[in-house]
Structure formats: structure tokens, C-alpha cells
Design a protein that fits this description.
The protein has 633 residues and is an alpha/beta fold. It contains 25 helices and ten strands. Its main location: membrane.
Amino acid sequence: MSQSKGQTSDLVSLSYKNIFRTFLFWPRIFRLLWDTHPSFLIAILITNLLKGAIPAAILLATRELINSVVAGASGGRFQPAFIAFGVLIGVNLVYDLINIGESFFRKMFQSRLSNQVNIKIIEKAQKMSLQSFEDADVQNMLQRAQGEADYRPFEIFTQILAIISSVVTLFSTGAILIAWRWWAFLFIFLIPCLSFYSFLRIGQREFNVHFQRAGRQRESWYLSFLVTRDNSFKEVKIFQLGDYLRKRYKTILEGFYREDKVLAVRRSYTSLAFQIVNQGACAFIIFMAIQATYVGQILVGNLVSLIQGITLTQSTSQSIVQGILSLCQNNLYIKQLFDFLDMPEEAKIQKSVQPLPLSVIHSIEFRNVSFKYPNTEENAISNVSFTLHQGEKLAIVGRNGSGKSTIVKLLTHLYSNFEGEIRINGHSIHELDKDSFRGKIGVVFQDFVHYEMSVRDNIGFGHVASRENDEVIWAAIDKAGITDLVAGLPDKLNTLLGKWFEDGQQLSGGQWQRIAIARAFMRNADIYVLDEPSSFLDPHAEKEVFQKFGQLVHERIGVFISHRLSSARMADTIILMEEGRIVEAGSHEHLMDMDGVYAEMFRLQASSYLSQGESDLEEEKLSPSLVRATGGS
């Protein structure tokens, strides 16, 4: 899968300007954190400040305990040692209690934050236009946003907390070291700082590698989906695709592994080099402290606290530097989330006009409408014009790829960037309130959705406000002609459909399509649109569906697409599409009188059905004689 130009241009170049520019997201991050749960946020901040100060208190208590024990052993006074011991135990107990409380608040906050970010992503996707959503670059952005949503915002928060806590620890414990030798503290602190630039370069490489993976990650997910989902399982078995898909999936994962290995090796070598320097510096300063104890400059307790102070200064200095590095890297990742959340929404793409209210749809008019899909050169439809009024039915026929379904997408206002005009009740479709307009349309798309949910959900989604209204749902079921089907299911409306979840009932393709038709019939719509409703239906079921459709669209507007021209006869107007253009239009009788392309296609289909009917009749006549000849079975 090739890397898009958009991906290449978004790769991060290493400059302090680019790095620190990412910190501009912090106000949004803190606003997100505050909106998630203010009380938990404050509690976590307070507990982390306390955790940062307690290590210094432990060092001082340890120093006093050791010095008191040494003094008590020579002077016979053990009371100061017992007091110091009690203080040390008390401080450690307080530290443990703070840890328990902080852990509770952190887990609760992380769960709430993760949920909130994921909901924001779903809300954003819901508000985007179909044109944007179908763009491959947008899908890659969504992949990155979803990949970071669960933990990046919280990881930034915890890193900030860790840095705050480490800074408090550094200066509280460092004060002990500074009181002895100020330069020793500076020496230990500066060495980790020197590693900043090297690790920053590694972090940039890691981000760019992961950034470029989005397309391949989506491909690997899709390959896994093909092998592990029931809707593709049959073909995978029959065509013996399992090994091929598994190897292709494995190749992608092995590529990820090789990239990760290169990055891990580079990071490990860099860490090793700086650790050697760091440990050497600490060993030198500890040696000086031991020497000072031998000559009587400091007490044994002071030596112990100095050694602990040196190691704590070293570890907290490293933690601060690594925390800042991780923040820089995580800021780059969080940018992907905010870039997606900042994408234009469907309503904001349109002209800023006050949307017109819509009560009843009386008419639809296409005036010289042309449209091309994003990232394509050829028009999907060109100069399409027709008018529909209340009580009329329109059939759109033509070969595959002639633009039939594109008209449906434009009619339902899923795409807005077309040329020409689409007018509803004489007003431009751009002037209408989208939600109000779409609420008056009942549609069955060619690629209708199989919701792996209950019958109630599958049908009730056509009008969510009536989802709990059994009477309305059963009426839609009756209109779709599947009353017996639903009544025969184990839990009727509450039966789970599909095989993704336990106790689900799998349906045939035709039954799923009738469920989708019932979903469209849930609405008391002004326009009903059926896009290839007969694709999964046998002729008898198709006839029944169109009879119901004809009754339903009485005094409304009906639009349907069908390859079976026998169904088109019920329409008041038929338009024949070829290469995105209307080549013939009129009633069935008018088009037959024209004796053009439609008439030729109709006669061809009619002769095919007649031949099939004669073949079936001959088979029926032949079957009894075959049974008699074989003596039955």
C-alpha cells in the first residue's frame, strides 16, 4: 500500500520550533482534563505533590535514625532513636496511603478520560460529510486518532504529574546534597540533560515511523477482518484464501517488527552510553562522600542520606529529562487527535445561510446536475435533469456504473459539492436544514447495513424515536412483508440478528434486505428511495415488495433503482442512464414506443424470463417420469 503525498508532507522535521509548537495544545488538553472530572483532577494533583515531597522526609528521618542509633550506642540514650524510628514508620505509612488514594483516583480518571475522548471521536465522525469520510487520507487520520485516543491524553497528564513530582523530589532531596557540595548536585543533574537532544531525535524517528504506518495498519486490520468475520468466511474457505491472507497479514506485522527493532536498538545503545557516564559520575561523588566520612567530616547517618540523595538526584534528573522527551513525543501524537477533531464538519462546509424549515416535500427538481467523486477526474453524472411531484414514482434504470446510485446520494444530500441545482419545493437544497430534510426520507441503500443487533434495533433505527413503539415497528414489518419471519423468531422483536454475538440468528440475504426495507418504512416519510431492492429477492418477493411500495408512496414521492425492468413499469417516469447521462426518459409505454435502448433491454429481459419459465416447465414435466423410471427413492 503506497504512502500518500499527504502523509509524506506531514512528517515531522526536527526543530525546536516544531517541537515547542506542539505545546500549544496544552490549554486544550487541560480543558479536556478539567471537563472530564474536576474533583479527580485536583485530587491527583495534590497527591502527586505530596508524593514528591515525602522522599526528602524519608531521607531526613533515615539520617536522624542512624545518627541517633550511633549516638545512643555510645551514650546509652535510645529515646531519640525510637522517636526517629516512629517518624520514619509514620512517614512511610503516609506515603503508602497517598499511593493507594492516588492509584484509585488515577484509575477512575483514566477510564473517564478514555471514554470522553472516544465519544468525541465518534461525535466528530458523525458530523463529517460523506465526501470527507470516504477520503483515504481522512481514514488514515481517523486511524491515528483512534490509535492514540485510549491513552495519549492521559499519558501526557501522568507525565506532567511525574515531572511535577520529580521536580519537587529533586529540589527537596537535592537540598541535602547542595548543603554538602553544591557542584555535586549540578554535576549529577546536568549529565541527563546532555542526552536530551539525542533522545529527541530518536523520538522523532519513532513518531514518523508510526505516522507512516496508518495505511498499513488499516490494511492489516482489514485482512484480519476478512479471515475472522462470517460475512467473508465462506469465500475465504471456498477459494482457499486463508493461507494467502495470513501470509500477507504476517508480512505487514513483520515489517512493523523490523522497524521497531531498529528503533529499539538505537534507543538502547544511546541509553547505554549515557548510563555509563551517569553511573561513573555518581560513583565518583559517592567515593568522595565515603572519604569525607573516614576523615570525620560527616557522620555515618549523613553518609547514608548523601548516598540516597545522590541516587535520588540521579534518578529524578533522568525522570525529568525522559518525561520532557516523552511529552514532546506525545505532543506530536496528540496533534493527530486534535487534527482530526478540528476537521471541517458537514454543516460548516456549506454556505453560512439560515436553514429553511421544511414541513412537507412537494417537489424535487434536478437542474443540469453534474458530480464527480473526490480524487477522480471523470464525472459520475453529467447534466442530469428531472422533476418529481408529490404522488409520482420515478424508476432509474441502466447498466452498472451508469450513475444510478450517485443520483440517490445527491438526492439524500450526502454529497453537496455538485454542479447545477437540486431544488426541493423550489428552494435550493443547500438552503434547507439537513436534519429536517433527511428526517423526511426513507431509504434502502444498495449496500445496506446488517446491524448485528436485535430486530427492534435493526428496524427501529429507521425512526429512533419510535424504537420502543411495538405497534409502529410491527406496521413497518407488515409493509415489508416479513410478519411471519419476525413472528417465527425465538424472541420476536428482541431476537439478536447476525452471528457476531451469542444467540444471534443468521438471516438469508433476501431476509436481511426485507429487514432493511422495513427500516425505511419505519418513517412517515415524504420520499421513499429503494436502491436495488430486488438484488437479494426472488421474483415473488420482489413483486410483493413493489406492491407494498406502490401503496406506501401514494400521495408521496417514490424513487427506486432496479435492474429488473419489469418492476420499472409501475413508475410514472423512467429514466435510463448511460455513462452518467440520461439517454431516455418517459413512461414505460412511451419508452417502448420509442423502440430505443430501453425497449431493447426490456425485450431482452422478457425473453430471458420466458426462456427460464419454459425451462422450468419442461423440468416439472420431466421430473415425474424420471421418478417413475428410477422407481422413486
